[in-house]
Amino acid sequence: MWSYRELYSCPLTLLLGVFEYSDLKGYVIMPILNLRVNLLTTRSGEVKVYSNIPISHWREHTVKLCTSIASNQVSSLNKVDQAKVYSMFYGGVGSYIVYKDELIPVAVDFVDTDKFFFYLEINSNMHLETTTSGRLEDWIIFQAALRSGELPLLVSSCRSLSRYSSGGESCTITTDLGVLRITRERLEGDRYLRVVPDNTPLRHVVVVD
């Protein structure tokens, strides 16, 4: 059994896309429940890292974000990474705008994980510039569809967001970590990594003697 004084459990985050509204820049982000970094501070003060994130640079980046939270250094991150940290705090799928050098949540929604399955097609060459860019109103409807579990609404918003959307029974979004497929059906094969949206805030546990 692990013996620790403090624990931070931080989810991997997906940058689903970006948007602009007037002169504002915004990001849409979803944390992942089943891929995480755990930072444990032992009673002697040693920090240990435990993670089940399979891709090394994903893991290293999540460790960086989680460490910034544990050390109260979130403000030192760039705005995209700050938005990812915000998504850890809020859970679900959220849109965030940069206003006067501050991040403000626009909308945060729970995701219906009973009606939708989520799969990543991993691409190690993905980065910010390749993520889906769309209008704020389409992202808001996209979030509403994930919350409500309504497939036709999801497909409609997805088609507006991405010209690569794959048709009537699924939605395809290009994220910073690879192509995300949202479906009603389970997908099989080594090319797919199943991910589950994290609807709950970041876990922080402090042991009180």
Describe the structure.
By secondary structure, this protein is an alpha+beta fold. It is 24% helix and 39% strand. It contains four helices and eleven strands. It has helices spanning 56-70, 79-90, 136-148, 151-161; strands at 6-21, 24-41, 47-51, 93-99, 102-109, 117-122, 132-133, 170-174, 178-183, 192-195, 203-206. The strands form two sheets. Strands 1, 2, 3, 4, 5, 7 and 11 form a seven-stranded mixed beta sheet that branches. Strands 8-9-6-10 form a four-stranded antiparallel beta sheet. Helix 3 runs antiparallel to helix 4 (151-161). The longest helix has 15 residues, at 56-70. The radius of gyration is 17 Å and the shape is globular. The model has no long low-confidence stretch (mean pLDDT 89).
Helix and strand arrangement:
Blueprint lengths: L5 E16 L2 E18 L5 E5 L4 H15 L8 H12 L2 E7 L2 E8 L7 E6 L9 E2 L2 H13 L2 H11 L8 E5 L3 E6 L8 E4 L7 E4 L3
Parallel strand pairs: 1-7
Antiparallel strand pairs: 1-2, 1-11, 2-3, 2-4, 4-5, 6-9, 6-10, 8-9
Helix pairs in contact: 3-4
Give a nutshell description of this structure.
24% of the residues lie in helices and 39% in strands.
Rg from alpha-carbon coordinates: 17 Å
Mean pLDDT across all residues, rounded? 89
> Could you estimate the helical fraction of the residues in percent?
10-25%
Helix and strand content put the structural class at alpha+beta
How far the N terminus sits from the C terminus, by CA atoms, comes to 17 Å
Q: Which residue ranges are poorly predicted, with pLDDT under 50 across at least 5 consecutive positions?
A: none
> Rough shape?
globular
